[in-house]
Design goal:
It is a single chain. By secondary structure, the chain is α+β, with helices and mostly antiparallel strands. It has one domain. About 25% of the residues lie in helices and about 40% in strands. The chain has 2 helices and 5 strands; from the N terminus they run H-E-E-E-E-H-E. It has a 5-stranded antiparallel beta sheet, with helices on one face.
Length: about 100
């Protein structure tokens, strides 16, 4: 399982975490964000930039979500996008409390 998929699926347990990856090709930037929407119980994939200015996809099943992330990662590699740095973790505060850090952060 790729880093993109592994981190996204694992973050579903911390329903207040979004993962953000930045990819670059030439002078273009693509931002990929994954999160779990606890109101709708859906996994959300948001893609900004590149050929699609904004795409939001929602999945009810974690397996389908993981499959889509793997396909997206393969597509980005095939299109010669390069990941910039490590993914960023964006916390949405709930009652002013941040979730505990994960062991490999």
């Amino acid at each position: 399982m790729s880093a993109l998929t592994r981190r996204s699926v694992r973050s579903r347990a911390l329903q207040w975490v979004s993962m953000i990856w930045i990819f670059e090709r030439d002078r273009e930037i693509v931002r990929v964000e994954t999160r779990f929407d606890s109101k709708t119980n859906e996994y959300v994939l948001a893609i900004f930039g590149g050929e699609c200015l904004e795409t939001i996809e929602r999945y009810r099943r974690p397996g389908e979500f993981g499959d889509r992330l793997r396909a997206l990662e393969q597509q980005l590699v095939a299109e010669r996008w390069s990941q910039i740095d490590n993914p960023e973790i964006a916390y949405r505060r709930m009652n002013g409390v941040r979730p505990p850090r994960m062991a490999d952060e």
